[in-house]
Design a protein that fits this description.
By secondary structure, the chain is of the alpha/beta class. It has 2 domains: about 190 residues, Rossmann fold (3-Layer(aba) Sandwich); about 150 residues, Rossmann fold (3-Layer(aba) Sandwich), CATH 3.40.50.10490. It is about 50% helix and about 15% strand. It contains 15 helices and 10 strands. A 5-stranded parallel sheet has the order 2-1-3-4-5, sandwiched between helices. The chain has a 5-stranded parallel sheet with strand order 7-6-8-9-10, sandwiched between helices. Strand 3, helix 6 and strand 4 form a beta-alpha-beta unit. Helix 2 packs parallel to helix 8. The radius of gyration is 20 Å and the shape is globular. The termini are far apart.
Length: about 375
């Protein structure tokens, strides 16, 4: 089996396994006093960890009633940390699976310097990012061994971190009195049931997406658009394209497409529009209609049963209906991830370009720069 597809198909069981474990970890780690000790939350990370932050900021606002901003680690570290208005009432949450990403570490250390509280969300509780934090939410995943023993574009880690942040939002909401115990338990059950929704969405979409990859095989550029949590899915889908097939791929805000991509000279560029069908529905219909009118090849990712809301000329990629929009990014990223997997297979393209052409540690690029970049604030890192 395609190794990336195999990883995607492991997601339902992953969610079933991690929800109880993460719930227990969060409940035992984060006291009510801590949960009520801040008024402003910054979610920060790089790459997929930033996309997770964008995906979950709506949940923190709705479920916990917390003013929340999702920023890239670079933006927070170099342009925000030294300008926090009330740092003593701020919580900065840094997400990193490895716990060693230089820019995320830097943001957390500079937040400590400013007087803010710092939380680490990581699958490596012994990492430097964990040492930089006041509290650590452990997002360790059950072991997964790819049969090909290769480095695969990360989908499991993205889902695990997103589940961790959503459960954190529920916990904060309950501890702060923004939602009741009964409401919190109901939301936790919804997160657990997302495993079934992921499974059903994969079954609905896999063959449709594979066919689409073959139909659009002549293209070399792809656009993914969404808003709110759907914007996070657009960013993540574009990232998986870059990692898997190496094609030029861009994640764009739905509204911004009408102000920018609409005027591109090449009109046939395949464009995926992600719509939750709620807050963004009316604008998504307008933008999809405009894209088709200028000759774009269009796919619409929207809840099952809502295809009648969009022009018939668009390809329809459904996801399970009835999921609150603040949880939908766990579903709306699936078609793009599947497309990236089959596109790479079609091209026989090695993932991450095999870390060649100066991308290796030895070549001085890629991962070595991500984890060993000059880091400000190291004097605030706690001793091991």
């Amino acid at each position: 089996m395609n190794p990336m597809i195999a990883q995607i198909k492991s997601l339902p069981e992953l969610v079933r396994q991690i929800v109880p474990a993460y719930n227990e970890n969060i409940a035992s780690t984060l006291t009510q006093e801590f949960s009520q000790s801040f008024d402003h939350l910054y979610l920060m990370g790089c790459g997929d960890s930033h996309h997770v932050s964008v995906a979950t900021q709506l949940a923190f606002r709705v479920l916990a009633g917390i003013e929340t901003e999702a920023l890239t680690a670079m933006h927070f570290a170099r342009y925000t940390a030294d300008n926090l208005l009330h740092p003593q009432r701020c919580l900065v949450a840094g997400a990193s699976v490895s716990g060693e990403v230089s820019r995320t570490l830097e943001g957390m250390l500079l937040a400590r310097k400013a007087g803010a509280q710092v939380l680490a969300l990581t699958a490596t509780p012994t990492s430097r990012i964990a040492r930089a934090a006041d509290v650590v939410v452990d997002t360790t995943q059950p072991p997964y061994q790819d049969p090909e023993r290769m480095v695969i574009p990360g989908v499991r880690s993205y889902v695990a971190n997103q589940v961790g942040l959503l459960l954190l939002a529920i916990h904060f909401g309950e501890q702060r009195g923004h939602i009741s115990f009964e409401e919190a338990e109901g939301y936790r059950q919804q997160i657990h049931k997302l495993a079934d929704a992921i499974e059903s969405t994969i079954k609905m979409d896999e063959m449709r997406v594979k066919d689409l990859a073959n139909q659009w095989a002549d293209e070399k550029e792809y656009i993914f658009c969404g808003s709110g949590p759907g914007y996070a899915a657009a960013l993540f889908s574009a990232a998986k394209m870059l990692e898997a097939s190496g094609d030029a791929a861009f994640g764009q805000d739905l509204e911004e497409w009408a102000h920018l991509q609409y005027f591109a000279k090449k009109v046939s560029t395949p464009t995926f529009f992600i719509s939750g069908g709620e807050r963004d529905g009316s604008r998504a219909r307008e933008v999809v209609t405009a894209a088709l009118a200028i000759g774009r090849r269009v796919a619409v990712i929207t809840p099952a049963g809502k295809s009648n809301l969009f022009p018939e000329a668009a390809v329809y990629l459904p996801f399970v209906d009835g999921v609150p929009e603040m949880f939908q990014a766990l579903l709306t990223m699936l078609p793009g991830s599947i497309f990236a997997a089959y596109r790479a297979e079609l091209l026989a393209e090695p993932y991450f370009r095999d870390f060649s052409g100066g991308r290796s540690k030895e070549g001085g690029g890629g991962i070595s720069r991500i984890r060993s970049s000059e880091t400000l604030g190291l004097e605030y890192l706690k001793e091991e």
